[in-house]
Every structure is written in structure tokens, then in C-alpha cells.
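Components:
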Amino acid sequence: MTTRTQPRRPAAPGPATGPPDALVLPPDTIAPGRANGRAPLRREGPAKLTGEAKYADDIVVPGAWYGATIRSTEPRARLRGLDLDDDFDWSRVVLVTAADIPGDNIVSLISDDQPVLVPVGGEIRHHAEPLALVAAPDRATLRAAKRAIAPRTEKLEPVFDPEASDHVFAQYAIDAGDPDAAFAEADLVVEGTYRVGHQEQLYIENQAMIAVPTDDGGVTVTGSLQCPYYVHKAMTRALRLTDRQARVVQAETGGGFGGKEEYPSIVALHAALLARRCGRPVRMVYDRHEDIVATTKRHPAIVRHRTGVRRDGTLVAQDIDVVMDGGAYCTLTPVVLSRGALHAGGPYRCPNVRIRARAARTNTPPNGAFRGFGAPQVEFAAETHLNRIAAELGLSPLDIRRRNVFRVGDVTPTGQVLRESVAGEEVLERAVEAAEFERERERTARGRAGHNGAGLVTGGPRAAGPAGAAAGIGLALGWHGAGGEPDPLATGPIRRATGIGLALGWHGAGFTGSGEVRLASVASLELAADGAIRVLTASTEMGQGTKTVFPQLVAAELGVPYEAVEIAAQDTAFVPDSGPTVASRTTMVVGGLLIKAARRLRAGVEARNPGRTFAEAYRADAAANGATRIDEQFEPYPGEPFDDTTYRGDAYPAFGWAACVARVAVDLDTGEVSVTDVVAADDVGRVVHPVLAEGQVEGGTLQAVGYATIEEMKVADGRYVNDRLATYLIPTALDAPRITSILVEAPFSGSPHGAKGLGELPMDVGAPAVVAAIHDATGAWITDLPATPERILVALGATAGPATAPPAEPAA
Amino acid sequence: MTAFRFLVNGEPVEVDVPGMRRLLDVLREDLGLTGTKEGCGEGECGACTVILDGQVVDACLVPICQVDGGFVRTVEGLAHGPGEARRLDELQAAFLETGGAQCGICTPGMLMAARAYLDAGGGPDEGAIREAIAGNLCRCTGYTKIVEAIELAAGGGR
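Structure:
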């Protein structure tokens, strides 16, 4: 093989990323956000836009072997042994089994239940469970070796139904008031059961890790990950390494969404075991199929609601039962469930509450973190249930929310007094105003009354163009491809109904309960002797904007240009443990620590240089006095401490608030839903960077739309059936609605910059808004996500079919 | 093994590899052009989108034997100028300004699909832009700012 281009060279990423300067914008281009001096351009943007950014699989490591995982093919079995084909030359590869693990055979996280590799004699608990590892110098040999290994097993009876499982990972009870008495006095009691399935994070970059053995007997892993110190802890424990010997470096990371919170520990351990065994670097890069088959998903859940209300819509009692399917191992399930329990009632005042939540083990691959982390499941149920209550009472979805939404001074079911930064009402009003919710809803209602007595728009022949416009009601279906083009397969008139739906949500910012106190995160700021100002944190960039927002916050505090602040690489050899990059905590918690560090740094420099600002003095000060490093450790936010045993107290330092209005068009013959546009209003405390913040709202909203409509992971015998990107679908640009994001600011006084969480908020409200819009269009309630065409057609049948009868409006 | 000769971003290259080797692997592994990404390996995600003789293709679905004598354009060929004077092209600049790139893994493919759209005379028409990038999945942005970026680069302003 010959090439005439530059030879490949090992990547040698420097310790710090400076601002983009080699690739500046042409002078005549407008840089929105930059013009006002507050919102700089994405720090690592130019590298990503030119292809120079190095994701794990882009990093060239000379002499590296390729690693692979030998997995179970049964959902539950006893591993009796591994049969090796004698015809294969085993001297060409290395093989690692559980017997080769030097430390604890445990993927360290919350519980110690998940092995790195199932040992012989051990129990296989899901069909994709790792049993052994193999590495080879090239891919062809690796494939041959994989084929030459056959697990010998003894089948055991699997459990797939979390409600039938006798192994409970966690359970919680939250009680307030006297629900039984309140139900007895309620004007109306409404019950409902809601189900949601798995959702795949589907970051576009698959899991990937490169392990390199080091001279001190340790291993350095470089890869795609959210939480360097989670991986670090897992490595020290399973590989019996010192803190120094285990080194974790984040490569550029192509999306995470929770899917790279805990799973990368497994990939890193596997790669590291192989690297130590063969004494050379090993690349462990999943393909899409393996990534979908083996990695964590959003927890499926069954949520049962029983709610007592007064005739005017006032909530008087809530009885909520949440069951989550944890999959085969504990992973983060207790924390996911906890967040689910704490958000289960929705953002509403209700004095009498009983919440019971439990998560059980099944023989499916473990479920884990995914944006929203337990909240999207329960908030879909809570919001859909509230909409059904409103319908039963003859109230509008807006009025019932206005009546019940939390206001300042209200108390949550855990006894948390909402003292400040309560913006449920504001996001609600802003969203409905922008979407013209009430006017649109009247139009869709007139549509239902005026056309065959149902929410039906007879749009004429399919080629006739926007059906809504043709019928004179609803919204024009003119968005990208939804109408307009003649359909050559059409045989009759299109029957399409349009509708609008509303949902409101809340999301606790940062870790749940005493989580932040236990994490005790550290963020550091360094003024180097050469005058460089450097941010040192373990908070990772995975698209959300950490590398831009942190220098921005520090620069503002120090009074220096954004470009003057560098950010150190996320490498455990250099940066402190700032906690994981999860739970919408990065800007709020770690950003807050950096601001405090910057204040101390500035005060120190200005004290040594009276009469001069930091910006004027810092270079000379550093040259004269040497480097200064400020380590800022987390201190508890004000409020009542949370009691993890009684579930009383302040569950979160603050809540973010979100409202979503969705408009849909439903094809009544095929059941296909198209979400045409969405207005999302999200309160994030303080907006640090408007462009990045809008990006979070838009991206989270589309993931929620996917969750609501097309993202269905089918499971058979504990195995994902649609385990490829050709069969697990996520929205394309044509499926995506036009999204209008409204950023609301209700600052939180506990963080120095007022910021709260953002990333997860939009994920909580999109799905119930879409389902409410489907009901508005068709009269059918979808109680199980996603609202697939099949489910919609079944539900339409249950409402006697909108073409022949009006949707059954439940009597009040 | 057979020698295949073609142009990559205007530079002549020659590789001596099996004819069915994927263009994606030739770019990434043989030529060291890792800007082109692999997301699924089956033509669903568009992360490996490059322009081959003016056409948008998924490099994971193109065997190198079909590239012989062709002209391949990748993300590495978009920015202009040598060394320190290198500048983003107007499409890359628009992505940077509008926030069209988040995690960045779909970005190279998205840029190439958009580049082909613009080169074919595509204008700031939202529906047409969405059609042009319908083969490129993005999980971060909700596509809003990507569409905005392409509109901006197509002369649509904001």
C-alpha cells in the first residue's frame, strides 16, 4: 500500500485548549452574540468544523491492537466455561477472562453487583453481558478469534416483567398530608396508568476507548466519556491501580446525553485489561450495532395515578405508584428512581400526596442515565393525567395549570418550601402566548365540530396541498414535506387532523438530595507564572458548551477578555474531581465554583497591587510572585438539608421550569403523527450564553419529540429487536418540528451567577405536549409511549373512529 | 491489491488496497483524513458524507474501486489558505456563528451535504435545506441552528 499524502502521526494534544485564533471569521461576517460582548463563539468550534478535532477513533496510536468483547447470547444462564476452537492459532491473540482481573471483579458505581466479566460458574444476567475479551493485531484476526470462542452455559429462567421481579434495586416513599381523607372529600377522582419504554441515547459517536499501558505499571485510557473520575475509580478498583497509575483522558466526545455517564467505565476496563495483558495499546471501539445492543437505555416505567380534584380543578390528593425496569444490574437506577419519585406529582401544589416508587431487576441489559434521568417518564404520566382530568372537568389544559402550578411559598411533597426562583407560571404564560395556544385550541375545536363531527380535516385529494389550509381550519401543513408534494401512491382523499397540546414541567437542578454535598466537587483556577489563566475542572465538553461557558464566566469575573482564559484538558493527571458532567449541574454548580475561585484570585492579585485592576496587574504579578492556584470546593447551598431516609427536606437547591406547546398533524388512515412546530419556554435562572442555551432547548426538545413519536425499542426475550440504526429511528431534519425557544430567567440566589440547570429541562415536557396535541386532534388519549401509528390507530378505534363519530368527551 | 488513483480535495493520491475497501476506511486510515466520521457503517446516519464527483455519498457505502479517477471532497478541504492564514469558508463560519455544531461528530458530514446543496445553487429555502440534510442525523441540535447556518451561508441573512 502506498500513499502520497502526509504520513499519519500520533496525535499529541496539548494540555490546554486556547481560544480559536488561527481560524478566525472573515471580517465581513456577523457574529451574533459576539457583537454584544457577552456570548463568544464556541471555543472548540473551529476544530470541529475543520475536521481537526480528535475523537477517540481519530487518534492514531502506533502499534495498537484491536479489542473486542465476547458476549452472552442468552438473557439468563450459568456460565460453565468458554470453549476455544483448537483449529484457531491462539498465539496470535490475547484472551482475557474474569480470572485475569487483578482487583475486584466489579464495575464500581453505586452497588457492587455488576462484574467486569462474568466468571466461570457465575450468573449471566442479560443477553449482551461481557464474558471474555480478546485483542488482535488486526481486525480480520480479531473477527476470526471471536468466532472461535463459544460460551458453554446452563439456561436459567429469565424475568422480563419488573412487576414480577423479586429483586428490588431501590424503593422510596414520599408522604404529605392525609390522602385518604382528601380522596373521600374530592369532587372527582381520576385514575390512569401510563407506560413508557426504553429510549436509546443515540449519540452519533459510538462508545470508544484507547488504553495504553504505562511504564509505572499503570494504564492511561483516552476516550469518549462524560465523567473522567467515574472511569478513574472503576479502574483503580478493578485493576488494583493507584490513583496515579490510573489515568483517564477525555477525547473529543461526540454526544453523551447520559449514555456516556457510567457505561464508559466498562469500555475502559475492558480496553485496559487487554492492554495490560498484551503489553501494548488496545483500541476498543464499538460499532453501532454493538453500541445499541449492549449499552444503557432510558428506564422503561409504569406509572399509576389516582388523583382527587375539586370541581374547579384544584388538586386535593395524589396517589402515585412508579415502577421502573432497572435491567440486569443496578447501575444508577436508585438515583434515577429517586429523581422520578421526586418529580412524579408534577410542578403542582397538592397538600395530600402519597408517592411509592420502586425499581426492579429484569434480565435485559442494564438501564442507566439518559437526559432527564427518571423525570421524563414520570412527567409524561403526570402531565397526560392532568390533561385527562381537565378534560373530565371541562376545563382547559391552561386553566387547570394556572390554578395548581407552584408559586413562591408553596411546599413540595418532601416539605421543601419554594422560597425563590419559582417560574412555572411564567414559562407557562410565555409559551402559551407565543404559541397562541388558546386561539389555536379554539380553532382545532371548531374543526372538530365542523367536519364530520370529529377532529378531522378532509383535505381533498392528497395532491391538493396543505390540508388544514384547504379546510380552512387548523394550521397549514406546509412545513417541510408535510404537504404540498403530490403523493403518487395516493388513492383517495387524505384525512388529516391537527391539534395543539400543552405541558408544564419542573426539573431539580444539580444532584438529588445530599448528592452535591457528598460529591464535594473541586474546581480550580490557575494563574501561571507566564501569565496564562487556566481553568482546571473535570467537567467535560460533549457539545453542550462547557469549554465556552467556563472561560466566559471566569473572564467576566476577572475583567479580562474571553480569549485570555484557557481551559485545561479533562485529564485526571491534571484536573481535580469536579464531579460528573451530568444532572444539568455543570454551569450551575461547577461554573459557580469557578466564579468563586475567580473572585478569590482577583482579590489576591488586586490586594498585592493596590490601585490596579486584575486585568492591569495579573501578568506582572504572576511574573513577580509566581503561579497562583485557587482550589474551590463545594459548600452546601442554603436551605433545609435533605434526609435520604425519610425523603424530607430540600430535594434540590432549586428547580428549573419548562413549558412546551406542540402542534401536530395526525394522518387518520395511517396513524402517522407529524409534529409541525413546538414552542418551548425554559427557565434556567440566568442565561450565560444565549446561542448555546437555545441549542440545549432545541436539541432536548427534539429528543423529546422522538421519545413521543418514533423512538421505540422493541424487546423480545430480553433482546432489543431493532438494534441497528436502520431500525431504531431518530428524527431527521424533515421529521423535526420548527422549534421556537424562549429563555426565561428566574435567578437562583444560591449560585453566584444565578444560573440553574438547563440541559435536561426540555426533555421533560416535549412528550406530554405532543400526546396532548394528538388528543386535541383526534380525541384519542395515548397512554403508552411512543405514540406509534399502531397505537394511534388502536386508540382511534377505541374512540369509535373520528370519521364516524365525535370523540367521546368524558362527562364532567 | 490494486492501485487506485483519485483526487482528494484537489490533491492527487494513490492507494494500493483491495477494491472493496470502503472509501471511509481509505480516507480515515490510509490517508489520515479523520475528519470524515463513522456513525453507523450502514448508510443511515450520514456522518461519513463526502462529495464524490459532485454527488453527496456516504463514504461507508462506497467501495474504493468506484472512486478510481474521481474527485473526492472532504471536510478537510473546506477551509481556505495556508497555515496561520487559514480561514473557515462561509458555511463553516455560519455554523460557528449560529451554533450549528454542538458535539461536532455529525458536523463534517452535515457540512459536506450542505456544501453540495449550496454548490448546486441551493438558496435560503428552509424546506429545501431540510431535504438536503435529511440523510444526516444530528442528535444535539434539533436541526434548527443547522438550518439557520445553511440559510445564512446561502445568503439568507438571519
